[in-house]
Amino acid sequence: MKVPIILTQPPPEFGELTSSPEFLDENTMDSDLTYVPGFSELRLARDKAIVEVMRGRLSAKEVPTLPRNFRWERCQNTKGQPDSRSVIQAGNQGYQKVTREQVGEGKIVTALPPGAHFAADGTIMQGDTVLMVTDASRAARNEFQQRARTASATKGAEAGFAAALEAMGGSPAKGSAPFIRKEVGTKVRAELNPKQKSKEV
Q1: Torsion angle of C-alpha atoms 128, 27, 93, 116, degrees rounded to 10
Q2: Which residues fall within 8 angstroms of residue 158, CB to CB, at 6 or more apart?
Q3: What is the chain's alpha carbon radius of gyration, rounded to the nearest angstrom?
Q4: Is 75 exposed, middle or buried (0-12, 13-18, 19+ CB in 10 A)?
Q5: Cα(76)–Cα(96) distance, rounded to whole angstroms?
């Protein structure tokens, strides 16, 4: 009579972890230090939709829009002392501190973010940062202004380079002009499903 060999090993010191839908859920917030309940899920869904647009599986008009944007703004210096410079700058861009009254089921923040706490004034603190929010239209305006400033600075740098070259008695080669090379970055592979052929985006 043959007896099957049974492989055994002692249990792990810290217990055994079994796979579960929650463990495999890619939407979990455990790797996102900026996680805001109720908003980060919307942001992730939008990011996924954008990837699908790049793959040609979804039209741009089907990408969901975000009703608002959140920021964790630093409100202390490296010594832990109050420092409101970043908060003031965000305020100038239309951001306001999120308060206790805006947290809860059906509100803009559905629950207090993990690791965060309410400060004495009712604002939400996490480490040396405070949670701030603005509406979608102001966030879009900020984005437009930032791009406009970047384009203006680039043109100014190109003009300054040409003027400096001329001041030194130099001139660009025939058929060319001073320019700044602008690069977004190297291509990356977007792959949500390893079984499908990935595409460069």
Answers
A1: -30
A2: 178, 179, 180
A3: 25
A4: buried
A5: 17
Q: Three-class SS string for 131-158?
A: EEEEEHHHHHHHHHHHHHHHHHHHHHHH
What proportions of the chain, in percent to the nearest 5, are helix, strand and coil?
30, 15, 50
DSSP class of 69: E
Q: What is the pLDDT of residues 113-130, one digit of tens each?
A: 989 999 999 999 999 999
Domain assignment of residue 61, given as a range: 21-169
Note whether residue 103 is domain-resident: yes
- Tens of pLDDT, residue by residue over 62-82, are 999 899 999 999 999 988 899
Query: What pTM value is reported for the model?
Result: 0.65
If DSSP codes are grouped into helix, strand and coil, which group holds residue 24?
A: helix
Is 99 within 8 Å of 139 (Cβ atoms)? Answer: no
Q: Is residue 95 part of a domain?
A: yes
Q: Total structural domains in the chain?
A: 1
In the block, which residue shows the tokens 């970047």? 150
